[in-house]
Amino acid sequence: xxxxxxxxxxxxxxxxxxxxxxxxxxxxxxxxxxxxxxxxxxxxxxxxxxxxxxxxxxxxxxxxxxxxxxxxxxxxxxxxxxxxxxxxxxxxxxxxxxxxxxxxxxxxxxxxxxxxxxxxxxxxxxxxxxxxxxxxxxxxxxxxxxxxxxxxxxxxxxxxxxxxxxxxxxxxxxxxxxxxxxxxxxxxxxxxxxxxxxxxxxxxxxxxxxxxxxxxxxxxxxxxxxxxxxxxxxxxxxxxxxxxxxxxxxxxxxxxxxxxxxxxxxxxxxxxxxxxxxxxxxxxxxxxxxxxxxxxxxxxxxxxxxxxxxxxxxxxxxxxxxxxxxxxxxxxxxxxxxxxxxxxxxxxxxxxxxxxxxxxxxxxxxxxxxxxxxxxxxxxxxxxxxxxxxxxxxxxxxxxxxxxxxxxxxxxxxxxxxxxxxxxxxxxxxxxxxxxxxxxxxxxxxxxxxxxxxxxxxxxxxxxxxxxxxxxxxxxxxxxxxxx
Length: 484
Ligand code: AMP
Ligand code: ZN
Hints:
This protein is an alpha/beta fold. The chain folds into three domains: 5-274, 3-Layer(aba) Sandwich (Rossmann fold); 297-398, no CATH class; 414-481, no CATH class. The chain contains 17 helices and 15 strands.
């Protein structure tokens, strides 16, 4: 079995990954607050943890991994949109409009992330569906002396948990000095954080022993991970910005509620994404959503490819140059894998992932090294079927489609570029005849040669068991067909 090593933020070093139960490897990743479309930065953890999910499924088997990623659908901005719609005359109660808004943004999110070829997690709980378990956990924390009620709020008492700050390596005093904590008269310690807060009549709320209210953000993940993965699971992930306070608070809640359990054994954090060397921000004009890019015609696979080029623990810079290079590389690789046909297609689907690629990803998700390996494999793939199979298997493992060739440049129509359709029927007939011969003689050398010439001339070649179809692509160059 492939050895996996992961950098554990809690241990501050790379460690061998040993699952609690190899039959059910369990991972929880903090998902988005669904108030609007996901920006490009939000997509980074999705792609990073999708690579990890695919690796775990590859090593332990697809049915032996449980991946949970939540939706935070309790949020003031969701409420504000719902309220604005209600004031503008939308039908339904405020609660219904709140739910509608989250349904809408969750739908967008899933479409965008699927376009990046991120697999859906096994479970995608919505916080609003787990209010009962949250209330139960808060009651338990009060009973155990870790939380207290004050003016309709319930607060977690950080001083009651001696290890508070271990993940981020800070002491409570340092945190008070450095953090922008909300100072409130009802807090015993300024670092105490909210588990439950009151809701006014015009805001969504749930009945609780402390009155009508709603949960704090941190308790959502503690309750949902406990319900779906148990008191101890393997991996907990999210962006670096969540280490403090979100993850620190999750740990405090979960360890105090279940003192005999370990909560998460490995903590993984991705670094942030920036754009052209600058932090993404609306005021700098470099803020955009995944949907904006997809709308501009940037394929989701290109976004994925750019992401994989940087190790997840390094800051990643999205640049136009990288986007252009990624598109060219993927286009080239897809051309190479499209040279596979007939029984080779099935073989490619079941080909082993080359060790160099698998080991790179298994070494703390070194996708940048894996991509370098793919470049090496691709160099030989033009002339060598084995390399083509390896390229296809590696692309599949990293979440790229090797079966779909790109036959046009994105955002441009082929007709516009070529002026008029190109007639390739004579070449189709010729190739079909040569292939028929080859099926009898079992010697495909000439078929391969013709196919390669066509591809080099910018022709897409599709061969099914019965048909040969040729289509001119945007890079079609008729002069390269003269020798044929
Ligand atoms: P949020 O909806 O703000 O809670 O964020 C959802 C996820 O996106 C979290 O895991 C964040 O850490 C992550 N995230 C937000 N901004 C960025 C960024 N610029 N780069 C990478 N990850 C980010
Ligand atoms: Zn969380």
